[in-house]
Design goal:
It contains 15 helices and 12 strands. It is α/β, with parallel strands linked by helices. The protein has 2 domains: 4-178 and 347-368, Rossmann fold; 181-339, 3-Layer(aba) Sandwich (Rossmann fold). Strands 2-1-3-4-5-6 form a 6-stranded parallel sheet, with helices on both faces. The protein has a 6-stranded parallel sheet with strand order 9-8-7-10-11-12, with helices on both faces. The longest helix is centred in the first third of the chain and has 24 residues, at 78-101. It is globular. The two termini are 26 Å apart. 49% of the residues are buried.
């Protein structure tokens, strides 16, 4: 075994990239070599361009994305099957060519189209191991590809949704993958001193996780006007970042950021994290010990994830308008809810993942991870 792994990610949102980072840190800490491939790029220039345009048009009208997700991807309709076959016709040959150029023992898919292509390729490359990591609470049909060696999911509901399509599927439930930096986040006092946030101010982190939904700039402005200190992260939305910096120039309670690796520190400084119900951001905030205020504007899997986060506790929903966000933040502040910090840290995902991979003959030593701590 060469201990080479390919991580199949996707370019829609930042959640897939963060999951690929978690997998890379786990594998590389155990002596593996990893490389990432963008599943959309495997569609080719023409196919990838079409996929990007279709996705952007769908999320521009969230109801359309909801319709595709719940009526087709969730049910595994004929349309979903056609989409899968059309994508696989381009992706499987491209992925095979990549693996012939540079062989790998393992393909880990954190993107649905990648999961389907890797499972189909296994029939041509029997020695290849195909693993899927899906952190959504409901796994749709394209994720659940027959031939996958192992499905890693993060809830009993997700495990049941895999077995809806594949009753005998090998499934392991693991804690939410979170990068080690979040477990090593500083204290709130230390983080605020570094960021220049007054120690006694009520502080909110509002973050765009790559989807571009929600009235972010207007909400930041309304919160600042209400006396809240706002750490505002635009992610890769350059236009939003520019508007936030203009706002900060005239509003001292706003501290703006573009794409940043300081999210653990920002979460530590905040009293509450305002975000979309993406599983990655939510699990990071839980590890740091912060309450969540979630916007119900993320279509498709975001609707499911919102309900799941509310059920887990320490999460709240709000009306996705500047007035709605501000009213909910002020209610949390005045009720003292966010002073309720967890009694114990969230569990690490590495031990459970390593144990699950051992079931398919892949032995990892997660203890080699920097900062992994005790099991």
């Amino acid at each position: 075994m060469t201990k080479d792994a390919v991580l199949l990610t996707g370019s829609f949102g930042l959640g897939h990239e963060m999951m690929a980072r978690c997998c890379a840190e786990l594998l590389e800490g155990s002596g593996w070599r990893t490389r990432r491939l963008d599943s959309v790029s495997l569609l080719g220039t023409w196919g990838g361009g079409i996929a990007d345009r279709v996705f952007n048009r769908l999320i521009a009208v969230p109801g359309l994305y909801d319709g595709l997700h719940f009526a087709h991807l969730r049910t595994g309709s004929r349309l979903a099957d056609r989409m899968d076959r059309a994508a696989s016709a381009r992706m499987v040959p491209a992925l095979r060519a990549e693996l012939e150029r540079r062989p790998a023992d393992l393909v880990v898919s954190v993107f649905a189209l990648g999961a389907s292509a890797a499972a189909k390729l296994k029939a041509q490359l029997p020695g290849l191991r195909a693993v899927v990591l899906c952190i959504d609470v409901a796994v749709h049909r394209i994720w659940a590809a027959d031939g996958t060696d192992l499905f890693l999911v993060t809830s009993a509901a997700a495990a049941a949704s895999v077995r809806r399509y594949l009753p005998r599927a090998p499934v392991a439930v693991v804690p939410q993958p979170v990068r080690p930096a979040f477990y090593a986040a500083p204290s709130q006092e230390q983080a605020r001193k570094e960021l220049g946030v007054p120690l006694n101010d009520f502080c909110v982190l509002i973050i765009d996780s790559g989807w571009g939904f929600g009235p972010l700039v207007q909400s930041v402005s309304a919160l600042a006007d209400a006396g809240v200190h706002v750490l505002a992260v635009a992610g890769r939305q350059r236009t939003i970042e520019h508007r936030l910096r203009e706002l900060a120039a005239r509003t001292p309670r706003v501290t703006p950021f573009g794409y940043t690796d300081r999210v653990p520190e920002l979460m530590a400084a905040a009293d509450v994290v305002v975000a979309l119900p993406g599983a990655t951001t939510c699990s990071e905030a839980r590890v740091v010990g912060r309450h969540l205020l979630l916007l119900d504007v993320m279509p498709g899997h975001g609707r499911d994830n919102l309900l799941h986060e509310l059920e887990l506790g320490r999460a709240h929903a709000c009306v996705p308008t500047p007035a709605g966000v501000t009213a909910s933040v002020l209610a949390l502040r005045d009720d003292g809810v966010c002073q309720d910090f967890p009694a114990s840290p969230a569990p690490r995902w590495e031990p459970a993942c390593a144990a699950a991979l051992a079931r398919i003959g892949l032995d990892l030593d997660y203890r080699e991870l920097a900062g992994a701590g005790p099991p």
